[in-house]
Amino acid sequence: MQLVRPSSLEEFAALGGEPGDQALAGGTELVPQLRDGLIHAERLVQITDVVPRGVEGTTIGAGTTLAELEHDAAIPEALREACRLAASPQLRNMGTIGGNLLQSTRCWYWRLQFPCRLHGGDVCHARAGQHREHAIFANDFCASAHPSDPAAALLALGARVRTDRREFPLDVLYRLPTADDRRLTTLEEGELILELEFAPPLASVYLKAMDRKRWAFALVGVAAARYEDGVRLALAGVAPTPWALESLDALEAAEPLPDNAYKVELAQALGRRAIASVSR
Length: 280
Ligand SMILES: Cc1cc2nc3c(=O)[nH]c(=O)nc-3n(C[C@H](O)[C@H](O)[C@H](O)COP(=O)(O)OP(=O)(O)OC[C@H]3O[C@@H](n4cnc5c(N)ncnc54)[C@H](O)[C@@H]3O)c2cc1C
Ligand code: SF4
Fold this sequence. Notes:
Blueprint: E1 2-4, H1 9-14, E2 21-24, H2 30-35, E3 43-46, E4 55-56, E5 59-61, H3 66-70, H4 77-84, H5 89-94, H6 97-101, H7 108-111, H8 125-128, H9 149-156, E6 160-163, E7 167-169, E8 193-197, E9 203-209, E10 220-227, E11 230-236, E12 243-245, H10 262-279
Parallel strand pairs: 1-3, 2-3
Antiparallel strand pairs: 4-5, 5-8, 6-7, 6-8, 9-10, 10-11, 11-12
């Protein structure tokens, strides 16, 4: 495997983008996946010097680490807390916000390479098997639960994404997999996330329910952000993508699996607390 280190966006573009390329940021997700044979790469393209890093006003460079966001007073509380509650301090020092938004599902059937629908097969092993941590919305084809805390926070904060090719609202980054297209994001081959732009809220918060007190993925994460026209809610851990919620009443549309109906109650309880917290 080859490792290349372009020193600018121009140098990155000049590489031409080969089918076997994989962009490497902090490597906290990519390297274990390469090691476990979940993905393959002929060429790793280190993007540390290509993607902006740091915060300027309401713009976040995709190469900014979770630790940097967690400690930056200019970042809305929902995103700071979502970063603070993600992974371990070591991983937050390495892991970037761009890589976090693009992390793969934690579904252990997928991680253990069961031939499930997300791997191109025709069965969702989780639906028939163990699915306590899985999705309660949009879980028909694939019941994986999106693991990113910051993605839920950024969704509530009305974030927009700028790539090396286009700009779009964060929800457009994600898609539900189908029989014809198993991808969970809409990024094109070789497309790089460069920046994220958030809308500053009047108040915001992120609450996360976990099996352990620290360093665990969200069973349910709830982000709430208050603006002049009302409170925006977004959830982690409830659907194959980060999930925006019109209001807590929308939880009535959840379709839990036999062993995860508790997530609806968790989301209700966290949602009520989150709304109360930003409404004070
Ligand atoms: C043990 C463990 C616990 C964790 N717990 C949590 C948790 O509780 N909550 C949570 O939200 N996350 C959690 N994470 C995820 C962690 O935050 C991510 O692994 C990390 O943020 C990924 O960033 P990275 O820079 O290391 O990405 P990399 O590993 O370098 O890349 C990840 C993927 O994103 C692509 N990529 C990276 N940057 C870009 C870009 N700018 N444009 C296009 N593609 C890009 C890469 O090609 C790769 O496919 C956990 C991870 C681990 C290993
Ligand atoms: S939830 Fe998705 S990733 Fe997990 S087994 Fe089912 S199809 Fe595969």
